[in-house]
Amino acid sequence: MITYMKRQRPLPSPPSITTATGEPILSKITSTNSTISSYYSSKKPRKALISDLKTPKRVTLNLNKSELFLPLTFPTGQTFRWKQTSPLQYTGVVGSHLVSLIQLQDANGTDVAYTFHNTPTSDQTAAKSALLDFLNMSICLSDLWKEFSASDQRLLNWRSI
């Protein structure tokens, strides 16, 4: 068996690009590297800037676990663009508002709290209304379960899950 090797061709040199004054652009790029590296410094931010950051306020929705349990509700595919940002927290967009929902575990059972990120105080009421609409808070799941389980006894087994 005879193998043929292709002859290696030399790579063409890149075209010479010049500015309107005739100066090669490559020399302009290399001369600005020192200013670019000084512009993007690796210095740590000043502590004054870090201390000014405010922790977002959490507001509870006063929900029982039977009405909304985030670890069972959000991963099931009903909230496609929401991301799990901690084990019991999910963050997503409702309308034009960035919202975090967190499942709280307290002595009274469980509850869900929300936080609006970068929402002006004047828009808080509209944002809360949009969130409650998104979560269908006008529908009581406990009442639905009572009605459904009265019609179908098999649902009583699922209620305990």
TrEMBL record:
GO biological process: base-excision repair, AP site formation; nucleotide-excision repair
GO molecular function: 8-oxo-7,8-dihydroguanine DNA N-glycosylase activity; damaged DNA binding; lyase activity
UniProt keyword annotations, A-Z: DNA damage, DNA repair, Glycosidase, Hydrolase, Lyase
Pfam families: OGG_N
Region of interest: Disordered: 1-20
Keyword NADP: no
Annotated InterPro entries: OGG_N (IPR012904), Oxidative_DNA_repair_enzyme (IPR052054)
Residues in 8-oxoguanine DNA glycosylase N-terminal domain copies: 61-155
Signal peptide limits: none
GO cellular component, one term: nucleus
Name under which the protein is recorded: 8-oxoguanine DNA glycosylase N-terminal domain-containing protein
